Structure formats: C-alpha cells, structure tokens
Amino acid sequence: MENESSEHDQFSSSANESESTHSSESYTLPLPKPEDHFPEYKENSLLDGASREAVNSHQVAYEMAVTSALGVISAACQGLVDVAFPNGFTVPTSLMTLTIAESGERKTTLDKHFSRSLGDIQEEKGKQYEEQYRKYQRDLKNWKLKEKALNKRLLKCHEEGRDSSEIEQLLHALDAEQPRAPRAYKLIYSDTTPSALAFGMHQNIPIALLQSDEAGSLMTGRALSDLYLLNSMWSGSDTAVERRTSESFVLRNARLSVSLMVQPGTLKRFMQKKGDEAHDSGFLARMLVSYPERKIGKRTQLSPLDGQEYIEKFRKRVRELIEMSLEVIEGKRERKALRFGSKASEVWNELYAIVEREA
Questions:
Q1: What pLDDT is stored for residue 12 in this prediction?
Q2: How many CB atoms lie under 10 A from the CB of residue 47?
C-alpha cells in the first residue's frame, strides 16, 4: 500500500524549472509559475467569494471548491458566449475539470452546493415539459384521427376512380400541421454513454454538463468508452453519430462541459486500462486537474452554517446565465463572442509559450 505523499505526487504535475519574470506594467495580476500552488487571487469576485464560503462551511480544500464552481460556471455560460482567441479562432467556453479526492472529502456535498441552480431550473423545466408533453399527445392523437379520415376518403376515391387531387392537397396541408414533440430541458447528465449523451443533446437541448461527484462508475463503465466523441462535443464541432440499431443523427452547435470528481485508486485503474487512449486522444490535455491535500482527520470542529452571502449571489447569477442561454436556444437572443483585451492577450501569449515548452 503506497503512502499518501507518494500517491499524491504520482498525480501532481511535475515542476517546471524554467521561470519567467513578469512586470506589473504588463497586466494587473502576476502570472502564476507552473510549480506554484493553486493560485488564490482574492479578487473579491462571486467565484472567489462563493469558493471561500464553501471552504469554511464544508471544510474542503480551496482548489477543490474553485474547480467545482468553475464546472458550474462553464455550464451556465457555454450556451451564451464563446471566446475569440487573440489569433482569431473562436471556441466555446466549455470546460473539462477533474478533481482527485478520497472518499470522505465531501465531493457530493460540494457539487450540490454549487450546482443547485442548475438542478432547480432542470426540475422546473421538467414540470413544464410534462404538461407540454401531455398536450402534445392529445394534439397528436387528434392529428392522427384527421389523417386517418382523409386517408379513408383518399382510398375511396381511388377505388371509385374519382379525382383525388383535393384530398391529396388536404393531406399535404395536414402534414405541415403535425404537432412537434416538446424538448426536455435536460442540463445535467451523469451515468450515460457518449452516444446516449449526444442523442440526449440532439433530442433535447444542445447544452449540457456531464457531472459526477463519484466518477468511478463513469470511468469503469461505458460513459468514457468513446473519448473522441466526448472531445468532439466539447469542442463545439458538428458531431455525426452513426448507430446500427436506431436512427443516426448529427449533433450541431452543441456545448458540453464536464465536471468529474474521482478517487485516486479509481483514476489509477482507469489510467492503466485507458491511459494511452486518454493521452493520445487529447482527452487528458483538455482537463483542468486539481489534487488537493486531504482534509480527512484535520477537521477539528463541526462545519459552520453561516457565511452564505456569496453563494446565494453565485446561484442567482448562474440562474440568470442559464436562462439567457435558453433564450439563445429558443432564438430570442444571439450568442456573443468575448474578445481578449491587450493585457489579456499578453497573458495568453505567455501561457501559450509555457504550454508549448512543456509539450
């Protein structure tokens, strides 16, 4: 059995010896060095404030809280805005995050803490969908009765050798009136396969969060069986899904974020089985990974219940962003592209150089 420190080091990023000096005149915040600890800017934002409240109220690691919050923010924003890189490419704001933490590190509690707004909206929209679907079934039943009556008249015309052009026109007009099934506003997926996820986003709404606070079932099951398909959905590319036993389809203009929490042992087994594919496909390169120090055994008191100011504002803002994203889907609002300012472009270019040197 490996000790805690060696196991932690196995999944931590290796330190990069090269360092860069950064002038405060270039940009407001200093660029963190690759070997530094998780950056804490204390920027007084909703993200930082809600993360610190989560640290205090649930006694979890700061980087674990931030990573969980980023997954929810990504899901909320991805349908509303894209990002235009300094080199001209426009890409989705979707993120893939991976938190490595032992059982007892309160992964489930943390995900529920941040994603409540997504769950609330999904539940509310689910109730609306049930009502809409019942109406759709009634309308479809009436439509089929009309179609059946016209088809009987058409058959009789053919049998009697009479002109059927008028009935055929009525049937064509009726085709245009066929009721359309409502779309379910499903935002959060957990235990699913890549093809089922793609079909769900095709049939329902094309924005989603693949989330699991215990990603062991995902990594050992079929959910990550097609990493290339997940990569394609994450990139926002049109994704063709060929299926043998049911209708094939093309998922267009979709946005997918992934937020996974997994135990170290499960991740080891996944890497042993699919590590080469995960690396070669670029799946791991897309991940923002955090592996915080253990909190188990270090909590000396019960978690306080106070300090909910930022998280309430955070949830309210997430709800606003999701509602605007749904307006984009419904054609009531246009998706916008956020562009880098001059200082942000400088930071981006330096980060690009660091990643290129480490490749």
A1: 39
A2: 18
Contacts for 299 with CB less than 8 Å, ≥ 6 apart: 59
> Order of strands across the sheet with 81-84?
90-92, 81-84, 336-339
What's the rounded Cα separation, in Å, for the pair 105 and 184?
33
How many other CB atoms are found less than 10 A from the CB of residue 165?
Answer: 8
The torsion of the CA quartet 324, 329, 332, 333, rounded to 10 degrees, works out to 60
Q: CA 330 to CA 349: how far, in whole Å?
A: 36
Angle at 183 between CA 177 and CA 184, to 5 degrees: 150
Closest of 193, 211, 241 to residue 94, by C-alpha? 211
Banded model confidence at residue 138, pLDDT cuts 50, 70, 90? very high
Residue 253, C-beta contacts closer than 8 angstroms, at least 6 positions apart: 206, 236, 238
Tell me what the pLDDT averaged over the chain comes to.
Answer: 82
pTM: 0.77
